[in-house]
Amino acid sequence: MSEGGTVGKAMTVLDQVAGFGRPVRFAELLAASDLPKATLYRLLQTLTQQGLVAFDPDRQSYSLGIRLVRWAHSAWQHSSLAPVARPYLDALSKELGETVHLAQLDNAQVLYVDKRNAAQPVEMYSDAGKVGPAYCTGVGKAMLAFLEPHALERALGQQSYHKFTDNTLIKSDALRAECEMIRKTGVSFDREEHEPGIICVAVPVLGASGRMLGAMSVTGPTTRMSLDGLAELAPRLQASAAQIAQAADTWRFPEQAAE
Predict the structure, then answer these.
(1) 214: helix, strand or coil
(2) Residue-range definition of the domain harbouring residue 54
(3) Cβ distance 41 to 26 under 8 Å?
(4) Mean pLDDT in runs of 10 for the chain (259 residues)?
(5) What CATH number is attached to the domain comprising 154?
(6) Which of 27, 192, 193, 225 is positioned for an S-S bond with 136, CB 3.0–4.6 A?
(7) What b/e string do you get for 139-164 counting C-beta neighbours within 10 Å, with b at 16 or more?
(8) Cα separations (Å) of 84 from 129, 154, 252?
(9) pTM higher than 0.90
């Protein structure tokens, strides 16, 4: 087995362990895996020895290891927009009193990297650290729309197109057309496409070169918000996104002191 193949299979095992969201027994992993029993066991042993997976001998179960926590913290500091965006999310949330999300793309899916709850919180799927669909969320569509054409086509092919609500777009052609409109207007909406009763307005976070860095949104329930009302918040959202983008560029490429 090649090193590349080994690493890829090990990452798949890590994803499976993480996907259960709880300690998982070997038999459960085996039932969900395409790997032979001996290969799966060997990979779990290696991952455990490296601290990427933890094994509980009393419960005979596997869970993600503490080494991954250190890696996740480092990634959050060095790769996530969350650290530089924090003050802008705080200010926007305080001003509007509504739920504010910050997200980035992760393998054509939405990774929520930060969130501020509304003054009157409403239960919804999205929490920081969760992964959600791109094709039916405001932040997801905002990010897809500003991908380079080849990257967009690849991402469209990776969507699951599960129909969560009657408003969910479930065909790539329809999603492609909406992305074209979003690219023209710079604004995306979730029209109860992922969760009934939940709507949002979203905008991309674009770097100085126009490269898509992420997206942010204002989200709320249809019981007290409307799409027209959310549309009025788009300019304020775009101003915050521009501030985050500028801060991100400075953070990643600090000005060199004059010699």
Answers:
(1) strand
(2) 3-70
(3) yes
(4) 69 90 93 93 94 91 85 62 90 92 92 85 68 95 96 95 96 96 97 96 92 94 94 96 88 43
(5) 3.30.450.40
(6) 193
(7) bbbbbbbbbeeeebeebbeebeeeeb
(8) 17, 29, 10
(9) no
